[in-house]
Structure formats: C-alpha cells, structure tokens
Amino acid sequence: MKILNYKYIENKNFEDFASGRVIYHKSGYTNFPVRLAGEIFMTCLDVIGKKDDKAVLYDPCCGGGYLLTALGFMLGNKISSIYASDVSTDAVELAKENLNLLTEQGLNNRKSQLIEMYNEFGKESHREAIISADNLLKQIYSQNQLINCSVFSADITKQNSLSQKDFKADIIFTDIPYGNLVSWSDNSPLAIDKLLDTVACVLNETSVVAISSDKAQKITNTGYKVIRKIIVGKRKIELLQKVNL
Length: 245
Ligand SMILES: C[S@@+](CC[C@H](N)C(=O)[O-])C[C@H]1O[C@@H](n2cnc3c(N)ncnc32)[C@H](O)[C@@H]1O
Hints:
By secondary structure, this protein is an alpha/beta fold. Helix content is 33%, strand content 23%. Strands 1-7-8-6-5-2-3-4 form an eight-stranded mixed sheet, covered by helices on one side. Helix 1 crosses helix 2 and helix 4 (104-121) packs antiparallel against helix 5. The chain is globular, with a radius of gyration of 18 Å. The protein binds S-adenosylmethionine. S-adenosylmethionine binds at residues 29-32, 60-67, 86-88, 91, 155-157, 175, 177, 182, 184-186.
C-alpha cells in the first residue's frame, strides 16, 4: 500500500477543467480530482513504457465522461484514442457531449453557447467559463491534439459485452461505482472481478488497468496481479496487469 507522492503532475490551478464550467455537468454525475487523474494516467504510461509516446485509453464505467475529458485536455499529447462506455444510456449521451469538447469544433461550439448565455444572463460564472474555453482551445492547438473518441453503451459486468470490439486499450482507467451517487447496476459483490473478466479481451500484453474505488471493494480475480496500490483519502487506486501472458 502506498501513499501517493506526486511525480508527474505539478500542483496548479485546475479550474479550467472544473465540472460544469466548460465540461458539461448534470446532477447525479460524479467527477474526479484532476491532478490525481493525471498522475495515475502518467504512472500507467510509465508502467507500459510509453512515457514518451501516445496510448489508447478506455474507461468502461465512464459516467458523463468527466475523467476522460479532463485527461484529454490535460494530457492530449499522450493519448491517441479514447474509448468510453457505460451501462446507462443517459451517461453515454453526456460522455459523447463532453468528449466532443476535445475537438476544435466542439469546443468552439461550447464557447459560442457560453457567450450566448453570458449575453443573456450576464453571469460572472459564464464570463469565467468563456476564458477557460479560450485557455482549453490554446491547449488543444499547442498539443496539436487529435484524439479519436468512441463512446458506446455496455454492461461491463456481462461477460461478452466487448466481444465484438476490435480495439485494444493500453490503459484502462476507471472510477467504479461506490456509494451514494452511483452504484453497480447488478449489485453483485463480484462486480469488479466480472469487469476484469469482460475487459480482458481488449487488453494487450502490457496493458494496465487502473481501478479507483472505495476501500471496501475487493478485487479477487486471479487472472490479474496487482502491481501497485495507492491510497488517496477515501479512495483506493489499484493498478493491475493480466497474469500468464
Ligand atoms: C463513479 S461513476 C463514473 C464517473 C466517471 N468516471 C466520470 O468521470 O464521469 C460510475 C459509473 O459506473 C456506471 N455503471 C454502473 N454499473 C455498470 C455496469 N454494470 N457496467 C458499466 N457501467 C456501470 C454508472 O452508470 C456510473 O456512470
């Protein structure tokens, strides 16, 4: 068990990535600490030996896509493709809207929407969001960002949910359901183990799976080894790789 010492992502102001500012937020949806997300992603990239390269990233419990969208903005020069799925079709719709912000056109449309809202209501929060949209646009240009995004619905506890998918993920990073706002669709105590079985077919030999959960949920899937376990406040993040490859 390890307490996290940040090595890759410096401590700065992440307000441009705040949920509900430029990135869309809906009530009932969770978000994720941005610096922590970046640090975990970079740790995974290091583990797979791609620190100077780009990776394919997949979140099978993507919710509204906050985690993936924030990572796309922050580390877009390290990501070639993003795959996102969730059992909830509403979540999938929100994730699509959010991941579309990673394109120049999607972000410019969002900026126009914020300008319209500012002109209509004159709210300070909208003015600040317009500034953030400009900052994010600069970031997209500076990173020469072009991330392919694909969003679909899938129950990740059902064994064959990904059997028709032809992508391979270098990194799976997911914040699984725990607690008040979101819960597993099937309430099974083995939900994480089932998730690991289901995603196995989209992993390659070196892929890393990073699972963020509360401390109560246990991983007992023997097809994987835990290569790192990190505790941050109430969160536990386990990095796993498939065994016997
Ligand atoms: C903590 S939220 C994820 C939030 C997400 N990381 C974000 O940044 O927006 C967990 C998600 O798991 C989804 N979920 C619950 N059961 C699932 C299942 N069986 N298969 C796939 N997703 C599931 C919920 O719909 C919820 O959106």
